Amino acid sequence: GVGFIAGLVGAGGGGLIVPVLIRYAGLEVRAAISSALAIIVLNSAVGFVVSDAVGGELFKLVLMLTGIAIAGSLLGSKLAAYIKAETLKPAFGVFVLAMGAFVLGEHFLR
Fold this sequence. Notes:
Layout lengths: L1 H8 L3 H11 L5 H22 L6 H24 L4 H24 L2
């Protein structure tokens, strides 16, 4: 389902799975976003471990980005306490649209 569509259109799975989790699994926005991020982390970790990058120069980059991601997760969890779900849902939509516009711009302005 979602993986096929994400691969077909070149979109990130998180942008597609969040609305599915909200609509069909009945999750609240925060839980849906958190679940999607957990899935992305696990998929990325498995992909990295089975790649040839372990131990190489790319490994250092991944460690740095992992540290930044962990810091962002901690900050985001603290900020989430101050953001209402009614605000988070449209903000996520705007973020997805902005990223879509960015990807289209990158593709057509090359």
